Each structure stands twice: as C-alpha cells, then as structure tokens.
Amino acid sequence: MSSGHRQRDVDPQRPLLDGEEEDEEEKAAVALELERSSRGEDERRLWFIQDCCGMVCAFITWFLVFFADFVVTFVMLLPSRSFWYAVVNGVLFNSLAVLALASHLRTMLTDPGAVPKGNATKKYMESLQLKPGEVIYKCPKCCSIKPERAHHCSICKRCIRKMDHHCPWVNNCVGEKNQRFFVLFTMYISMISSHALALCGYQFITCVRVQWRECSDFSPPVTMMLMIFLCMEALLFFTFTSVMFSTQLHSICNDETEIERLKNEKPTWERQTRWAGLRSVFGGRPSLLWVSPFAGLKLPTLLPRRSWRGGAEFSV
User: Fold this and answer.
1) At 127, phi and psi to the nearest 5?
2) Catalytic one among 167, 200, 207, 215?
3) Using an 8 Å Cβ cutoff, are 176 and 111 in contact?
4) Which residues of the chain have pLDDT under 70?
5) For the chain, first and last CA: distance in Å?
6) Which residues on adjacent β-strands are paired with residue 301?
7) What is the signed CA dihedral for 266, 269, 274, 279, rounded to 10 degrees?
8) Which alpha helices (DSSP H) does the chain contain, by range?
9) Crossing angle of helices 179-209/274-282, nearest 10°?
10) DSSP, res 121
C-alpha cells in the first residue's frame, strides 16, 4: 500500500498488521476464506452460530410455537361442534405458524452479511485501487477491511454489513442479507399471537355458556390452565414482536440501523427514500414474494470448513 493511503483501526486494540508473523494454519485458513469469498461460495455455505444462549433461545421459540399450535388445534378447534370454524381457523393458524418458523429458520441460517475474515492484506488493499489520502478502516478483532456501515459482532466474531442488532431469539445477527426474514418472522409471530388471543377469547365465552361441559376433550382444570398459559404467551409475544416489527420498518424506511441510531452516528452515506429502502430489503417491486420466506431459497452446499480462531460459522 502506498504512503498516500491511510488505514485506521476502528478499535483501540493492537491491530493485526501485514508485517506480523502468522502460523501456517492461520495463513491457510485466511487464504481459504478469501478464495471462497471470491468465488461466492459463502452465500451457499450453511451459516450457523454456535452460541449456547442463542441456541437455547431458538429452541424455546420453536417450543412455544408448537405449544400454541397444540393448544389451538387439540384443545380448542378439534372438539368444536362447528366443522367450518375448526377447518378455517386451523388452516389459517397452522399456515401462519409454518410461515413464522420458516422465517425464523431463514433468519437463523442465512449469512447476515459477514465481511470475509483476514482480508486486510497488502495484496487485497492494493487491489482496491485506493486514491491518495483515502481512508479505510480495519477491524483488529477479525482482521478485515470494514465496509461503510459495518460493525463487529462479538458473538458472531465477524464484521456484519449494515448490522442492526444481534438477536438471541434467532441466534444470529440481523444484517444486510437476512433483515427481510427477521421482519417476516416478527410479522407472522404477531399475527399468530393475535389469532390465538382471539380464539382464546371466543373459547372462554363458549365454555362459560356450556359450563365447561363438552368444551374440550381435556378436563376443565387442564383446559383452563392450557388456555391461560396460551393467553399469557400470546400477549407477551404479540407485544414484543409487534413493537420489533414496527421498529424494523421504521429503520428500513429511514435507512438507519438500530446500532447507528443508538450511537447517534451522523450519516456519511446518501439515505435512500422509503420505497427504495423497502425495495432494497425485500427485493424488487411490491409482490407476494415480499411476504414469502421461501423466496430465493437455495440449498446450502456441503463444503468442508476449516475454522480460523474459533470462527462462528458451521458447515457440514
């Protein structure tokens, strides 16, 4: 890199400079990382964060959705005397549950926009063809050149493009490439939560009228306990996901991530209009594909993966 180019380390920690010695295993891992990134293989590799807290939270999320589906289907709908009431609500609730879980999977297993590790090499910086006096930023934690609006995640151990936040409930960062799926996840969870609350309200009224006789295949105490737990869960989930959904839409329309808002960062980029921001996240013109978590689904390639300093990805 010529003397006219300047490089800044984002954090005050000691950076990994080009002149420092690295062992052969790390050099090979960095080279493999850069080679795969240049071939676009990162987009086809299965992404999974090996974080205990995140995996537990993701399991709890799935468990609660299945619990809600069990109560709605087997406690409230199947014992119903109205055939069409049970069919319509059962199909609607289960369809929304499938879309919510699919959105959760896509959020959790999609690369949020990770910057390749170890690309802060002399050869790579020379390939950028920087202008004299141009400033670039290097992350000393993952030894990568940080693009504009990228932030380092200590859990993912990577710099993430347009990182909004790290969500333990999806065991992943919400960033440039998976924000759409996270928005869909919060939307569908809020929808099934409101649907469950409405069904619980109707079920309580029905059960009171018949004095809990022929109200459910379960005993009245068990039925009441399951419905109370479902109401509490639905109310909590509806409050959380509806607030998160509106916050995400506000961030997208204002072209500002949550980290940038909390840090009160002054925008050095040209902000997009609302529709341009929505199109950049959801892709293309408004269509039904915007609300489908299956749009653009590609099966990951089973690639061998060598870890580098405890990398966060997992591939099989």
Assistant:
1) -70, -15
2) 167
3) no
4) 1-44, 130, 133-134, 299-316
5) 37
6) 45
7) -140
8) 24-39, 52-70, 83-109, 122-127, 179-209, 220-254, 258-262, 274-282
9) 90
10) -
Q: What confidence tens digit (pLDDT) does each residue in 201-214 have?
A: 998 888 887 777 77
Coil, strand or helix: which one is 275? helix
**Pairwise CA distance, residues 92 & 95, whole Å:** 5
Which DSSP helix (H) or strand (E) runs through 129?
Answer: none
103: CB partners within 8 A, 6+ apart: 181, 182, 184, 185, 188, 293
Residues 6 or more apart whose Cβ sits within 8 Å of residue 276: none
What is the spatial order of strands in the sheet that 135-139 belongs to?
A: 6-9, 135-139, 144-146
- What token pair was written down for 80? 């119903």
Q: What is the pLDDT of residue 143?
A: 81
Cα dist. 77→88, 95, 197, 200, 213 in Å? 10, 15, 14, 11, 15
Distance CA 174, CA 163 (A): 6
167 is known as an active-site residue: yes
User: How many helices, marked H, and strands, marked E, lie in the chain?
Assistant: 8, 7
Q: Read off the amino acid at residue 283.
A: G
d(CA 238, CA 186): 9
Give the separation between CA 41 and CA 57, rounded to whole angstroms.
29
Q: Report the C-alpha gap between 70 and 199 in whole angstroms.
A: 13
